[in-house]
Amino acid sequence: MSLGDAFQGWELVHFASKAKRHDVLDNERRLALYEAGRLRMRGEAPDVASAARLEDLLEALVASNLGEADCDRGDCEACGRLAVLESERPASPPQVGPERPPPPPTTGAEPEVLPSFIYTPSRIPGLRFSPRNSEVLAKVRDGIIEDAADWVLHYQALLLDAQSGFDRLLCIPLMRGVRHYKYQVDTALKVLREMRGRAILADEVGLGKTIEAGMVLKELIVRGLARKVLILTPASLVTQWREEMDVKFGLAFEIMDEFEDWARHEFVISSIDTAKRGVHKEEIQRLSYDVVIVDEAHKLKNRATQNWKLIASIRKKYMLLLTATPVQNDLEELFNLVTLLRPGQLSSYGGFKHRFVRRGDRRTPSNPRELRRLLKEVMIRNRRSSVLVLPPRRVFSADIVLSRAERRLYEDVTDFVRDRYPAYGRRSTSVNKLSLIILQKELGSSTFAAAETLRKMKESPNFPLEDRLVLAELHERAAAVAENEKARRLRQLLGRIDDKAIVFTQYLRTLQHLNAVLGADGHTVSVFHGGMPPWDKDESVRSFRETNRVFLSTEAGGEGRNLQFCNTVINFDLPWNPLKIEQRIGRVHRLGQTREVHIVNLWAKDTIEEYVIDLLDKKINMFQLVVGELDLVLGRAEEERTFEEVLMDIWTVKDIARRREELQRYGERLLAAKGQYESMKSYQDNLLGPELAAEASP
Amino acid sequence: MISPTSVEGFVRRYFERRSAPLQEEETGVYRAILPGSLLPAFAGAASVRVAFLPERMPPGGGVELAVVGSYLLDRIVEDATGAGSHSVARLSLGDVSPREVLEKSIRPRNAKLSLESATTESVPHILFNFTVRLTTDERVERVESVLIDLRTSAERRASPVLFEEGASLTEERAPDWTGIEEAYRRACGLLEGRIEAAVIGFRDQAENLRKAEVERITKYFNDSVTEALHSKLTDGAAEAQALEVERDRRLAEAEEKYRFVGEVELCNVRTVHLDVTRAEASLSHRGARRTVSVEFDCSDPVAHHLVCDECGIPTESPVLCFGGHLVDPACSQGCAFCDRVHCRTCIAKGMIAPCAECARPICIDHLEVCALSRRGYCPDHIHTCAICGRTVGPNYIARCVSCEQPYCVVCVAPPTDRCATCRALQGATTQDRAVAAVRRSDPGLAKITNWRRASNPRVTVLVGKGLVWNHLLVMDARGAVVVRKKVLGR
To answer: For B5, which of A140, B269, B368, B474 is 20 to 30 Å away at the CA?
Structure first.
């Protein structure tokens, strides 16, 4: 076995980190080791040359006795194994590989300036004539003549590359698949021009603060004003941020975890919790960032907290604080947030209290107009009512009674899930537990979708034999169900609708079944799912827009395509992640939609879908909430678990009375959370007013 | 502002030059063969697909967008600026006639232009292209070009043709670059003067922001420290100390953010041999003649405007003053009554003066001076007294109460306010030619036999005395009656 095979990916990354601390490998080799680790973590096989290089690197580590060196992981097994390898090697002087040629001079290095080419400005102090100018002059003096065509190209490249101030956003054409609005462009320009790159982006939920922040960031990067960027978010949003920055702005961010080296990466994303941990905090404070972006910045409302102190202590040039709720309980929160961004904008705390806080009332400012004037210099808050005027939504619920065969299968599968779910532990990442959740979801869509999962489960060695026997029997029954009550109801519905309609389902097998039955009914159907190549997807959208009546789509239909020429959305099944439901509706209920939007939810009685409808529609009326508001409501009701987890926890309670009781209790929590959210929103609207919008007149 | 078209043009030229022309594969999407220098940037791919408009980008990817700030364009710019630091070009005058150039460039308002002589020679020049980069918390960049005549170190206007590929011809003679150092320093000095106002404005703006920020931060932390020290609730001293540390850090942050960095980078240089023509030309009219030397180069075959002798500003349509000066029309004045023109210097010497009545400029040929006030008047406002022959201005003219004719105030004497002619009336017979004429023309006057008469070079005054009425008639030199009055006789 080669040395390279002896270690896992994360262990190689760990060695790279450790090698830096102990100054064992030069930078380039350390990066190569790091990359090899990352490659292995992604499960990708290295080519022959890379594998050989990894062997060399590990040999060098062994030779330098890195395994024996102090490890910040304490009793580290990886280092232990490395140490064993070291002990098996004959003693040799520490070595870091063969002699390497000196690195080529970097472009940042100052060249030697020929004295005769020195020019010292006499009129403009601080202006510097680059020492590199003498390189060009020396070429002339030495008679080096290049082709005129190259000279002209060089000159034209200079003209193209020269940029004026923030006269317009260069980043707009560089954004990928992002529909941006005028208020977002106005916001980005205002942040760059007037607020000099330091702002609180406090748009109401769902207006795209992330897009605005991304635009500002991309613009600073394109203009060469930002090289080192730090994004701090709650842990749950780290991956989402990285994906958005990558997909929409082409910015490759590195997520900082325990083993990452903060200095190595220029664009980093981290959770605030990771960043404020001892060693990371010190490293962040040591570095200097061009841009710092903090999402969910209302978590910085208290200046006595570690979060606030961490952000305050980071050296940065530009900073964006993103929050839809800059003030929730009292004015001091606002003071703390603004002071973090721009100390002194609202005076000292004593001065702020004296000017704005009434005695005995910490929520209502004594001089609201003056407070808004000061906030306008640092905060932008676009309001939905002024930037997005959309037609109303109308929601229709279609309850379905499952056929006898479907009902029996549903109940038996549910009994199986209820029986096994608690036994598989509380870790949602558990493979078996995940399978049970998927199975339960699929059954709500169609037996066709569930049958495939049942087949895989019965064949999976992860399940005990007795479970697999049950699963085999369930699979057989699922495969035997030919009818689908929901599909029958859908066909009736489509028969009554004269207009185009989008039918969403989560599962490909359901989609295939629906495509077959709707086609048989004579409907013209455009199919759209994640497995299709891009050109087929484009063709599908085009045919729906021009000729076909029904657009049959999985979740992939949601991504970035404009379907607002249609105003009817039918949810054939309901995702348990409410944000996905919002995304579905968002495909048609968006700017450009002129007609009332109709949302039809198909749900089967006495199934978990009834719970979803009960909680989301009947309790909190989610279909009338705007994008993002739902997230705030759900977050207030339950901080630890996702809606899906709560739902599953309730659904798998065996005792029916207790199950109803828990459902009732959660529903009440949601209702209370919605009330709290509405009250806070009303407080903010009154306090901040409409003047803070990006395009508001001065 | 850079439009997509200019990016597209540049990218197309780049690929044409470095590899092969772009091939359109589908609407708005092109296949570009990558030159060897770009291969590492695209993982060794031989070609890429390129689009110039975001809306042409297929959702599946696989196409490189070429817009400002995109990966592809950045790499192309990087590659393009890695070569072409110095090239040589030669431009000849060709068939251009110096006379035509002169006639096109100098259009005198009041003189005839004649070419006296012209000589053309090839003169080495250096064209310096600089990038001026100004950074604070924003960045502004501009490309500035300075063309220096290596012979005189004078700046010459860099015409667009110098930036074109077509300007370049095979260099048959080794250029002489001995003056490059001096030319560079001269170009730097000229550039500095050119950008001074813009740079200082940019820097001052950042400086004002920095000052405001430093002031705000200092005040905030000083106030907060005071509040902490007076606080009864917290450990004031510790908090004050922490605030002071943070203040220093925040101040350093503000300094760093608004720090002005201005850098001028010489990007590329072109040695240009330009045919320079020196011509002698003359401008002339009935009153003066002036010879001028003009120089122009073949890159921009237009002679520089002549410089006004008065204000020093180049003028497109110079005026040749009758004193021999060449001036801008704004620095000259012409007589209202003839073609005579003078510059300010000549005017100061009294070659042209305003009429004291109407203020029109009057040259010395047309200016009349009032014999009584000594003020100058134009011909329209000067009056020659018909009795005494004096020239007087309007203020020194009086009208005779009897014949109502205007004369100088000396000839119309108080207390009677009658003119010297009316005062000199003498008896005349009916055979007097004037008397006979009026008696013939008016039967009413034929009965009157008692006449008096006086005349001056302009008018004849007749008074016929009747039994009750006296008749006064004023006749001009042609015999026409211009005034006729009937008054009770005495």
So the answer is: B269
Provide the sign of the torsion angle of the four alpha carbons B152, B154, B159, B162, taken in this order: positive
Residue at B68: amino acid letter? V
How does strand A229-233 pair with strand A127-129? unpaired
Q: How close does chain B come to A72, measured CA to CA in Å?
A: 30
Say which residues have a Cβ less than 8 Å from residue A228's Cβ, sequence separation at least 6. A266, A267, A287, A288, A289, A290, A291
d(CA B244, CA B58): 55
pTM: 0.69
CA distance linking residue A81 with residue A91, whole number of Å: 17
Report the pLDDT averaged over residues A277-288: 89
Every domain of chain A and the residues it spans: 4-88, 172-387, 402-480, 485-664
Structure tokens at B327: 């001036």
Residues B96 and B198 in one domain: yes
Q: Are residues B41 and B164 in the same domain?
A: no
Cβ neighbours around B169 below 10 Å, total: 13
Q: How far apart are CA A312 and CA A300, in angstroms?
A: 10
pLDDT at A409: 93
Does some domain include residue B383? Answer: no
Query: Tokens 């004295």 — which residue?
Result: A115
Who has greater pLDDT, A491 or A117? Answer: A491
Which residues neighbour B214 within 8 Å (Cβ) at sequence distance 6 or greater? B251, B254, B255
Question: Which CATH number does A485-664 carry?
Answer: 3.40.50.300
- Are B103 and B159 in the same domain? yes
Asked casually if ipTM beats, i.e. exceeds, 0.90, the reply is no
Q: Which residues contact A203 (CB under 8 A, 6 or more apart)?
A: A187, A209, A212, A324, A380, A381, A382, A383
- Identify all chain B residues contacting A121, using CB atoms and an 8 Å cutoff: 188, 192
Size of the A and B interface in Cβ pairs below 8 Å: 262
Q: How far apart are CA B490 and CA B481, in angstroms?
A: 23
- A555-613 per-position pLDDT tens digit: 755 555 668 889 999 999 988 887 788 878 888 887 678 899 999 999 999 898 888 88
Contact residues, chain B, for A150 at CB < 8 Å: 17, 80, 83-84, 87
Residues in chain B: 490
